Amino acid sequence: MVQEINIALIGNPNVGKTSLFNALTGSRQHVGNWPGVTVEKKTGERRHQGSTIKITDLPGTYSLEARSPDEKVANAHIMSGHPDVVVQVVDSTNMERNLYLTTQLLDMGQKVVLALNMSDMADARGDRLDLKAFSKGWGVPAVRISATRGEGLEDLLDTIISTFKDRSVPSPAVNFGAEIEGNISEVEAMLRSGGAGGTSPRWTAIRLLEGIEKVEEATADAGLRAKLTAALEGVDRDEVEMDLVDRRYVAITSLLDRTYVRGSEKRSLSDAIDRVVTHKYLGLPIFLTMMWGLFELTFTAAQPFVSAIGLGFEWLAAFVVENVQPDWLASMLGDGAIAGVGSVLVFLPNILVMFLLIALLEASGYLSRAAFIMDRIMTKMGLHGKSFIPMLLGLGCNVPAIMATRTIEDEKSRLITILSAPYISCSARLPVYVLLAGIFFPDNAGTALFLLYLLGIVVAVGSALLFRHTILKSETSPFIMELPPYRLPRLKNTILQMWDRGSMYLRKAGTFILAGAIIVWLLASLPWGVEYGSEESLVGAIGHLIEPFLAPLGFDWRIGVALVFGFIAKEIVVGSLGVLYGAVEGAGLEEAIALSMSAPSAAALMVFVLIYTPCVAALAAIRKETGSWKWTLFSVVYSLILAYIAAFIVYQVGLLIW
């Protein structure tokens, strides 16, 4: 019988936990959601020494105090008793900060293995660690690894199995002093006698003394509640919490003083770069220049591939229309499916280039600096410092951006960020920008993309500021973040990350966009006998119904139809335009749009697509995260009104300029 070992992988943000998870599980991983929440759950497995090691990757967290949704998920999973061993990934170059989490895991009575990641970087800095004495200090086995290089993984797996087989009971790493330990023991004894406290009555007792957990959450027994309330009466929870933090760091310092010698403290290259890129006055201009360069390359580097793919789809659509029988099937395939999906897929090179550049910036460590720079600005404006991280994720997709707000503890700040994050331009909007910018602003297409993305940030931050001072008034607080050292990105990991994100675009093209294109084709063909895509078709009737509302923005009925279907997924806007404008006889898509649209209306359309109602998936994420249809509906109405006003201004000003 194959032995199964369940392990939980945990660690602070930016310690290489994801790299280790990928290195251990390879392709044997699954992604889903934790029950009841939209926090992503990654699981995988690895065979070793005849055992199956099942790995659950917990959200990155600095502590297990369970104040934010991320911390609650990690705390609940460990307290459930599921993990046989907890593997904590530790940044070897920042031991003190990382070991705080270790002390909490030991208070929970967990079997812990420390994976000392980035050990190669610590060696390069000249750090020296007495690994044997370090492991013996708290009775926690530690293994030096480098997840990106695949070093030390076999030793880590061996240690996991030996720790699993070890029947000894882990001891707490910290003695909190006679008074607090006495209080902990008293509350712990009550919990045990009442069958409460789960798998770790000591940890529950600590959380009760700190005031993080409420008595009513610890037990449903009325008698035990009364006893606990009496025992906790008179306890200064704030003072206890501060004392616990101090004692933890005293224990950490004591261990490291005995076993660890830090290398040279001379200024590193990373520090020298940071003096420039995070400079009080230079940081923001450098960030904006980097973003401008990113979007300029996104357009120019991909353009030859876009043109080649576009010609290929035009030839394929024409071939199908001419050679497939019956005519309705030829039209559905050529004018509908191929024209619609093809008009979206031609922009896959742009998507891949953008994700490649973002992955390079992320792997190098620069995006953490960007968050630091923007946090300083956003905090001064009265916004929550943590809000920029979800907004940054929105460059890829608004759905994970909305989900990433779970790291924000304050509910009002979290709600403000959820409502504001969709205004960051996701990759789904990029095809609209690239198509229209390439037609109407070919000499400044990269700059046009940059300005649109910058406008998205301005709208998101402006909306958040408006919400905070009106409907969601609350205090703000900055957030503490660690800046990882600069690293040379690994080509393999960067390309895999690019493809992982880009493949989502392909999957959409084969599902939502294909379905949308066929529906638009069907509406453009009915009733049977009318000219395809004409004003007499059903799609024409729908377009003309809403055209009076959109005329002040410079939009014709075709654009109105495309925007309606863009509600499903923003890529369908281009797919619909491909179907409808492809019906213009004797003209390709770009030529047909150039003949039917002006530069002011094109600019207004790009702004409208940037701001108006998020896609169905994003709205589902808003509904799930807020738990409210009211806020979901508010997001729809607010974004539509804002998009209309912004597009109207752009169009009217454009008429005066062009």
Q: Strand order within the widest sheet? A: 2-3-4-1-5-6-8
The multimeric state of the shown protein is single chain
Span of the ends, CA to CA: 76 Å
**How large is the radius of gyration?**
28 Å
- Would you state the CATH class of the domain at 3-165? Alpha Beta
Number of strands: 9
Q: Residue share in helices?
A: 55-70%
Q: Strand percentage, roughly?
A: 5-15%
What is the CATH third-level topology name of the domain at 3-165? Rossmann fold
Rough shape?
elongated
Q: Count the helices. How many?
A: 31
Sheet having the most strands: 7 strands, mixed
The mean pLDDT is 82
Name of the CATH architecture of the domain at 3-165: 3-Layer(aba) Sandwich
Structural class: alpha/beta
Summary keywords:
31 helices; 658 residues; Helix Hairpins; Rossmann fold; two-stranded antiparallel sheet; alpha/beta
Describe this structure in words.
The protein is α/β, with parallel strands linked by helices and 658 residues long. Among the domains are: 3-165, Rossmann fold, CATH 3.40.50.300; 178-261, Helix Hairpins. Helix content is 62%, strand content 8%. The protein has helices at residues 17-25, 69-79, 95-107, 119-125, 131-138, 153-165, 178-193, 201-210, 215-218, 222-232, 237-259, 269-277, 283-300, 303-323, 327-345, 348-364, 366-380, 388-393, 398-403, 411-420, 430-440, 445-469, 491-510, 512-525, 538-550, 557-565, 571-581, 589-596, 599-611, 616-626, 629-657, and strands at residues 3-11, 29-33, 40-48, 51-57, 85-91, 112-117, 128-129, 142-144, 260-261. It has a seven-stranded mixed beta sheet with strand order 2-3-4-1-5-6-8, with helices on both faces. A two-stranded antiparallel sheet has the order 7-9. Strand 2 (29-33) and strand 3 (40-48) form a beta hairpin. It is elongated and about 85 Å long. The relative contact order is 0.07. The model is unreliable at 31-38 (pLDDT under 50).
